[in-house]
Amino acid sequence: MSNGSDNKNKSEPAIVRLDDSARNEARSILFHAYRNEPTFQYLFDHRRPGYEQRVRATVRELIDLYLEHDQDAIGVMVDDTLVAVAFIGDPELRMNLADQISWRIRMVLTTGFASTRRYLDYHEKIRNLLPQPQAHQLPLMGVNPKYQNRGYGRLLLKTVEKLCAENPQGSGLVLDTGNNRYLPFYESEGFRSLGKIQLGDFEDHVLFREVHPESKAAAPGHV
User: Is the Cα dihedral 145, 149, 150, 156 positive or negative?
Assistant: First the structure.
């Protein structure tokens, strides 16, 4: 993969756009990012055999869905290695997730009916918390565990915010997390709580920040 420019200092992180060639690397990063997350553990029943297979299948199907719909997908490259990725949902796409029939069929076949139903119910609850319909979604974002705590997650999120600001279809960005340790990070980026969703014995936090148009920054390279 290439970011389309000569980078003399290869240790400097570079923002890149992702395409089909990045699918496998993105799947690996997001699997490791989500398999221990409380929300995924609840939705896909980590106590039942086959949990990791269901997480892998869900990550794969979501990545395929967003790429098939030409949604923005970006990553951070360091020394020619993809270390972090984010997939951004158009204001309408995630809201209509239940209407993606072929995706639903693939999810049922790979994760089971119960897990698919819980996942769809969960996203319907998120939709009901939105302050207004025109909001971008950040359904998938993760950093390779080997590269965490180096600022790559913050760099990625700031780039997501800039892309959303350049898109006139939405005026805000919504994300969610079931991990309380991430809340200070998101709050430091200007996110506020829209509410909480009860999932078993813990709560998933739905967060929102307004995104206002800015002067366009240099476009990231294409992978």
Answer: positive
